[in-house]
Amino acid sequence: MNSDMMEALENIEREKGISIDILLEALANALVTAYKRMPDAAEEAEVEIDVETGEIKVFAQELDEEGVVVREWDDTPSDFGRIAAQTAKQVILQRIRDAEREMKYEEYAGREGDIVTGIIQQTDQRYTLLDLGRVEALLPQAEQAQNERYDHGSRLKAYIVEVRKTAKGPQIVVSRTHPGLVKRLFELEVPEIVDGVVEIKAIAREPGHRTKIAVASNDPHVDPVGACVGARGSRVRMVVNELRGEKVDIVPYSDDPAEFVLKALAPARVREVRIDEASGTAEVIVPDFQLSLAIGREGQNARLAARLTGWRVDIRSENQAQEEPAAEEYDEGEWVKNESGELVWQPAEGGEAISAAAAGYADAPDASAAPAEAVAAGPEATAEASTDAPADEPAAPEGASGDEEGNDG
Description:
By secondary structure, the chain is of the alpha+beta class. It has 5 domains: about 110 residues, 2-Layer Sandwich (N Utilization Substance Protein A, Chain:P, domain 4); about 60 residues, CATH 2.40.50.140; about 80 residues, GMP Synthetase, Chain A, domain 3; about 70 residues, K homology (KH) domain (GMP Synthetase, Chain A, domain 3, 2-Layer Sandwich), CATH 3.30.300.20; about 80 residues, no CATH class. It is about 35% helix and about 25% strand. The protein is built from 14 helices and 16 strands. The chain has a 5-stranded mixed beta barrel. It has a 3-stranded antiparallel beta sheet with strand order 1-2-3. It starts with a helix and ends with a helix.
């Protein structure tokens, strides 16, 4: 090995980015192995390479029982230069391959959650390959949007979900269905998100069809929805184009659950939202002509709104709300007779008495067959006193507010 070889190593360092020290260390280890295969070679040896001249020397070693060197001498074979040249070529090529794989892995390791742009190389039933330049990315079938076509040679943005280290180099798994793809695309188009002025609070997505995102502003002078939409819709249009026409709804985030659910059901107009924290349900009342729009095709709008807000969304039209009053609107009470002798339900906390039909009951205890004292005692006592009473007497409605608005429902 001479100065020409050292110059070649320096060129490799510049072109491949592999440190010359790493190459020399790998070469020295390989030469020690080559020396030990020669006849009469010492059991222990060390190879030294002069960085200035490229001269190689082999020092045989004698060790004691504790592994300490007690004697060392120069045992460089006479034809070791030829062996060194052959070994150097093999070691350098192998080391270059290993270093390149390691560098590629380090380049993408820890980049889960980033977005990359690649050129589609190959597509089959299992996966699609994307050429990212120095490495290839794997787009599995499960991570592909159903309505997207991946034509050979076209450019595609994808979301990195995993970076695996393999013997052949890094394996990068990407996705076109992950909600993070939408977030990263908006970050590319909306500087306010990168600066932290606008924040994406939640994303609900059905890949290839529709996405809803909730955004909030940390600056009262900045409209978060307007910032994401852009002038004449320019910003959101770029995202939609990259998603191959997938619809994107941008709604303002709110800490008030009722208001958040109301906004999340856009573009439908909502009349009222009632939140039941105990059951995690948001009861939504919409105008009759807005019911189908609020629910969406095959329930998509309601489904995405529920995912976005985290509430179970129950949508009813105004007519349905009037015809099918919820039992929880009425408090506990008792059956009593009104001035006309009709048996009605009287809420325990006062308020207007309501008929059985309005309270959500098909029928009520038969007042004509029940003594007045039994009627005053409530449904159970009435049922016991009446031989004509229905088998299943109505019980007091549960969990109701008892207010006038509920009674009108």
